[in-house]
Amino acid sequence: MIMSNRVMKLLVPAIAIILGLLVGAIVMLFSGHDPVQGYIALWDGIFGSSYSIGETIRQISPYILAGLAVAFAFRTGLFNIGVEGQLIVGWFAAAYVGMAFELPMFIHIPLALIAAAAAGAIWGLIPGILKATLRVHEVIVTIMMNYIALHVVNALIKTISGGSFKLDRIKPTASLRSEFLSELTDFSTLHYGIIIALLMVAVMWFILEKTKTGYELKSVGFNEEASRYAGMNTNKNIVLSMMISGGFAGLGGAMEALGTFGNISSMGGFTGIGFDGIAVALLGANTPLGVIFGATLFGSLKYGSNNMPNAAGIPVEIVSIVIALIIFFVASGYIIRVVLNRMGKKKEAK
User: Fold this and answer.
1) Which of 8, 18, 25, 84 is 20 to 30 A from 108, comparing alpha carbons?
2) Is this model's pTM higher than 0.85 or not?
């Protein structure tokens, strides 16, 4: 019996992860390291203490939002490779609002979050307009917008700070951190951003599955010409899709500004979170729930790998190889699907 599409969507990423870990173990062996000790160190780095668990959850938060940004664009027929730049401008906007204003907490935090989402949305608006009006491919524009975001934000930081390389810390009323979470996780940097990230998962699901706008966005992404023939405003939907995607990415930057770091410093390069969001969305099959699992895997591997050099003498780069292998096998999902279907047919024949 040929497996259902839903079962296949669950099996392919699971098999990809297992294959990635197995091939990663082979890489460790050939490089002279003990894979068993390596994975034990990785596990301890993720779950070994309340501090590690707190830091792992904190690492997952921006990955969820970056994954949602990429997945939302994919579901609506667009490839937003500019999540990194949208995240950076969102980080700056949240940090600036958090630093510059004296407001009650119940106003300050929402305002900073809205500013971050708006900054990311505006950064997504530009490639959206170019795509809708001039048919300029969004991949090209969003790649360029990443570099523009990086250098514009660095220039703004230097200008606002009077020549310094970082802004002042945000006010306590804008912080997502709390003494309760800090003490609960042995003074980790865990913050309430994970709740915001999970709420955005529900928001994406609601928009795409329960609203007319979501239906139109998916329809335009699936077949633009048919949607136009049906009376939909395709140009408006393309722009709206990029703005919503950028809004999710901007909120990912707010997690870093209001939670992890409490400010923003000049960046010598990209954070990498936005680019990893592509892999998170791919691993999660571009579904809201799948993004949670993909972000959990990536966040856990990213933070847990920090324990591998000290505990097992394994370079952090090995984890990067494992992640790359997982992405490779997920991208090769068609082959895995063919193999699973053939196995299903053989069982049916027997």
Assistant:
1) 84
2) yes
Contacts of 127 (CB under 8 A, 6+ apart): 80, 82, 136, 138, 141, 142, 145, 242
C-alpha to C-alpha distance for 193 and 63, rounded to whole angstroms: 11
| pLDDT tens digits, one per residue of 59-97 | 999 999 999 999 999 999 999 999 999 999 999 999 999
Neighbouring C-beta atoms of residue 19, cutoff 10 Å: 17
* Tokens (6 digits) for 54: 């707190």
Lowest-pLDDT choice from 110-114, 129-133, 234-238, 331-335: 331-335
239 neighbors 132 (Cβ within 8 angstroms): yes
3 state SS of 152? helix
Q: 210-219, long-range: CB within 8 Å, 24+ apart, which pairs?
A: 213/240, 217/75, 217/76, 217/241, 218/75, 218/76
Residue 306 host element (H or E): none
Distance, in Å, from the CA atom of 40 to the CA atom of 42, rounded to the nearest integer, reads 5
Report, as an integer, the average pLDDT of 315-319: 80
Tell me which residue has tokens 């079962």. 7
The SS3 of residue 253 is helix
For residues 318 and 320, what is the distance between their CA atoms, to the nearest angstrom?
Answer: 5
**Residue positions counted in the chain:** 350
The chain-wide mean pLDDT, for the chain, equals: 91
Q: How big is the CA angle at 192 (ends 188 and 194), to the nearest 5 degrees?
A: 95
Question: Which residue from 80, 223, 216, 56 is spatially nearest to 141, judged by alpha carbons?
Answer: 80
- Could you report the per-residue pLDDT of 326-347, keeping only the tens digit for each? 778 877 776 777 777 777 666 6
d(Cα 35, Cα 33) in Å, to the nearest integer? Answer: 6
Distance CA 309, CA 33 (A): 11
Supply 326's token pair.
């997982």
Distance of alpha carbon 188 from alpha carbon 153, whole angstroms: 28
Gap between the Cα atoms of 230 and 226, Å rounded: 6
